[in-house]
Amino acid sequence: MKLNELTISELRKLLDTGEIKPSEILDDVYSRIDEVEGRVKAYITVTRDNAYAMADNAERVIASGAATALTGIPVAVKDNMCTKGVLTTCASKMLANFVPPYESTVTRKLAEQNYILTGKANMDEFAMGSSTENSGFHTTRNPWDLERIPGGSSGGSAAAVAADECIAAIGSDTGGSIRQPASMCGVVGLKPTYGRVSRYGLVAFASSLDQIGPLTKNVRDAALMMNAISGHDPLDSTSAPVTVPDFTAALGQDIKGMKIGIPKEYFVPGMDHEVEDAVRTAIRNLEALGAFPVEVSLPHTEYAIATYYVLATSEASSNLARYDGVKYGFRAEGRDLLDMYKNTRAQGFGPEVKRRIMLGTYALSSGYYDAYYKKGQQVRTLIKQDFDNALREVDVIVTPTAPTPAFKIGEKATDPLRMYLSDICTISVNLAGAPALVLPCGSTHAGLPVGLQIIGRHFDEESLLKVAYAYEQNTEWHTRRAQL
Amino acid sequence: MTKYEVVIGLEVHAQMLTETKIFCGCSTKFGAEPNTQTCPVDIGMPGVLPVLNRKAVEFAIRTGLAMQCSISPYSRFARKNYFYPDLPKGYQVSQYELPICEGGYVEIVVDGQVKSIGITRIHMEEDAGKNIHGGEGRYSFVDLNRAGVPLMEIVSEPDIRSPKEAAEYMRKIRSIVRYLGVCDGNMEQGSLRCDANISLRPVGQEELGTRAELKNMNSFRFIEKALEYEVKRQTRILQEGGEVVQETRLWDAAAGVTQAMRSKEEAHDYRYFPEPDLVPIQVEQAWVEGIRSALPELPDAKRERFVSRYGLPEYDAESLTAEKAVAAWYEEAVKAGGQPKAVANWMMGELTRLLNEKDLSIEESPVKPAQLAEMLLLIDKGTISGKIAKTVFEEMCRSGKDAGVIVKEQGLLQISDEGAIEKAVDEVITRSQKEVERYKAGDEKLLSFFVGQVMKAMKGKANPQILNDLVKKRLL
To answer: Which sign does the torsion angle of CA B403, B406, B408, B411 carry?
Structure first.
């Protein structure tokens, strides 16, 4: 067994007993990267030299007996999180040369545990997309089928975990960007409650929806990562001042008697049969473990995509205004200031980013604000109430993650509306600010992974982990590996 | 010809005197090397987030309370979106729908009458940086030291009816923010700035006319001049049957005119929306009450007190209370025994003149309040004449010595000895026979000639009352 194929907790034992050194894990990680990265293309930047320096440091910490859960563990970080001194591009030509002089809170917290950064993972440009096809540099391939997309926007993070090019990864989720690629790559992905994890240093797409979370090989690793990255941050006013539990304490607890909500609106016409079958089977498995499935309704689900694309693009149109060629990043010359602005933004942004900036600018424009942005906020409140109401009746809600398994590269690239629909099962959760976890729950005939989504109450990630762990312990899906 | 009424509303921007910026820990100090007081947050780097400076909120509340506003228990920030190199994020974090303070007023004194000017709202926002043009080549430079310095925008109701009132209003705002210690009020350095909306309407008409917005008036004088120019410009347009265009106009101080900057058609659509990176501001009543109880006595209250307690006219009271330090100086002088109206006269006259000459503030005055009071007592007791007092006061300013000492040293004691004065009068009359003839022929204006001549001869020390009486008597 290669070390890069192990989980965080497995490696922890080996590291703490002195059987292996962090650099040996890196040896296996980088030989795997050398072997498959040419085909998978999960990374934008591989930080090998820096990683070995971090490994030396971790080794000293372990030797001194001060190791914590992530000490010496190689982690890939999505390229929209600022890493001091390490290129952070957001998969955009606009930031192709941007080296932040500051560290995001999440990577700082990981560094406090002496983790090892393997590299910066590919994504859709500015996290806008569901396939990584919008990356300004290259498309990441799904390790289960290189002809297919890995999902997005955290497709590089998911693929890196699935291809064993790292032990775990960090992603960000604005409308499903952790969960949909986790589902399509057969890994565990967790989008925490909005406010659970600091957004400081996360390059903003839609500030009121963005949330950072882990992508891992199993549920326990997700809990360990959550322990590391959660908590109020004085640098992020929207991070919640709530206490952080030990998330691993939820693992192994009995789920007997738990009520599991099944929202009828999520089993939509046009959903792939194999996906629906896998999810329904998973629900029966949970029932067999003592949980009670209850049908619930989330009546405003049908408005979620429209609402999302008004609110997220509105915020994005403003968040991306700072890329103007004046201070950092890409600049195209021009005759005068206006010309420089236009050339910089025309050449620096890709088509999907421009599309969303235009949509959002329109939605916020004088005369349209009430009809779009304001209405969108009102519907958002209704959607949040849907979840509040349902979660008063049940402990968690279980749904599919995406209507289809991973699709072919290019299949939806020219049809933005069809692409947007692939987020239909995940988007509402961001609008509600609720936490959700995705874990493998099946496979199609073609061998593509299917993910089960578990949604919980605000700041109750523990219930998600509890249900997911119970399911994982009684199924084999998480042990399947992509053959590359 | 139609008579027009002038309608003016002012938007005043006041830089708050907080140590650090509104959303980061950088210093707000003025005058540092460009871009040395910046960090990833105020430069608008990717992924950074604002954290609200509590002191800025406190200052805004303090100002709101001083202007009789209600303080919103729940308010929030919004983004004002536009592109400009001195605006690093491409939006300014400001307040739009729910400002921190609403609905207050301040009082101004115009022609001795007190007038109330409504305050629509006060909101908080971040300042922008500065573009520096005119270097070599085709580039301009951007200095972001000022980006993120906390501002208050104080918006008045359109209650102002003349350029003079506008300047008075601005003086009052400056006075209040300085009393409160929330802004240094320096208009030259731009820590206090104002834009004016001005329109004309036929007298008696309810509906407002089309307005122009004036910018770039960085002194009280320019505010008045720019508005006077604008009144004339708009009056001429309307009288010629034209229409005022809604536009932004810049005051050109050198040329003494306002010039169109951008019209409504070119106006920005700022696409305001609630700032998602900041949580709403919840202000607890206890905090507000704490701030209220710590408020100093403010200019309006002080003015009223000066009127009722010292019997001063509104004008004097307004003038003496505009600056906290001046008012304190006044009260100290009165407390030391100075007669209230006399202290007021000397402060507004000689003291102000001498301080201006030497470019000194009241705190730096070489004459202390008790010294003025002592000098006034010498006048009262007849020890020195009012005329000599001016000389004495000038010497006090020069040397810092007490009036009594100067009088003694320079032999300036007033002479009330009738014999001595009479002698001098006789001398003058003897050598001024021509004038005596004319006086006796009815040219009574010449009385002052004789008095002046005697005073001169006695080096100004003669008791003026006795002198007057004696001259009249001798010329009978």
So the answer is: negative
- DSSP single-letter state for residue B266: G
DSSP B53-109: -HHHHHHHHHHHHHTTPEEPSEE--EEEE---TT-TTSEEEE--SS-SEEEEEEEEE
Listed in sequence order, the DSSP H helices in B181-270 are 220-239
Q: Please check whether residue B9 is in contact with residue B160, taking contact to mean a CB–CB distance below 8 angstroms.
A: yes
Choosing among 3.90.1300.10, 3.40.50.300, 1.10.10.10, 3.30.2350.10, the CATH entry for A3-257+472-479 is: 3.90.1300.10
Catalytic residue, candidates A154, A177, A239, A422: A177
User: Which among A10, A44, A9, A48 has a CA at the least distance from the CA of A27?
Assistant: A48
Do B81 and A364 make contact, defined as CB atoms within 8 angstroms?
Answer: yes
Instruction: Give the bridge partners for B130, in sequence order.
Output: B143
Is residue A177 flagged as an active site residue? yes
* Residues whose CB is less than 8 angstroms from the CB of residue A479 and which lie 6 or more positions away in sequence, other chains included: none
Of A260, A319, A307, give the one whose Cα is nearest residue A471: A260
Q: How many CB atoms lie within 10 A of CB B52?
A: 17
Q: Closest CB to A321: pick one of B49, B91, B269.
A: B91
- Catalytic, A422? Answer no
Q: In residues, how long is chain B? A: 476
Asked if residue A80 lies in contact with residue A123, where contact means CB atoms within 8 angstroms, the answer is yes
Tell me, rounded to whole angstroms, the distance of Cα A203 from its chain centroid. 14
> By the CB < 8 Å criterion, does B267 face chain A?
no
Joined together, the tokens standing for residue B397 give 């300013």
Q: How far is B196 from chain A (nearest CA, A)?
A: 24
A476: CB partners within 8 A, 6+ apart: none
Q: Domain coordinates of chain A in residue numbers?
A: 3-257+472-479
User: Quick one: average pLDDT of A202-219?
Assistant: 98
Summarize pLDDT for A285-324 with one digit per residue, the tens: 999 999 999 999 999 999 999 999 999 999 999 999 999 9
Domains in chain B, CATH or no CATH each: 4-291 (no CATH), 297-410 (no CATH), 418-475 (1.10.10.410)
Query: Contact, B40 vs A322, CB < 8 A?
Result: no
Q: Residues A124-142: pLDDT tens digits?
A: 999 999 999 999 999 999 9
ipTM above 0.90, yes or no: yes
**Is the Cβ pair B79, A318 closer than 8 Å?**
yes
Question: How many whole angstroms separate alpha carbon A111 and alpha carbon A22?
Answer: 14
The answer to whether residues A160 and A182 touch, using CB atoms and an 8 Å cutoff, is no
Are residues B91 and A237, on separate chains, in Cβ contact within 8 Å?
no
- List of residues 6+ apart from A32 with CB closer than 8 A: A2, A4, A163, A164, A165
**Min Cα–Cα distance to chain B from A77, Å:** 15
Both structure tokens of B420: 């001595």
| Residues in chain B within 8 Å Cβ distance of A320 | 90
Quick one: which of A238, A381, A372, A371 has its CA closest to A312? A372
> How far, in Å, CA of A82 to CA of A105, rounded?
9
* Cβ-based neighbour number of residue B136 at 10 Å: 5
A90–B48 CB contact, under 8 Å: no
* CA pair distance A84, B193, nearest whole angstrom: 39
For residue A480, report the phi and psi dihedrals to the nearest 5 degrees: -65, 135
Active site residue A237: no
- The DSSP code for B258 is E
Residue given tokens 């005759």 in the structure block: A335
Asked if omega into A153 is within 30° of 0 (cis), the reply is yes
What average pLDDT does this structure show over A454-473? 98
- CB spacing of A237 vs B279 below 8 angstroms: yes
Q: Which residue has the tokens 């997005």?
A: A152
**A482 is written with which tokens?**
């992509």
Please identify which of the residues A21, A41, A78, A109 carries the catalytic annotation.
A78
pLDDT digits (tens, 9 = 90+) for B436-458: 888 888 888 888 888 888 888 88
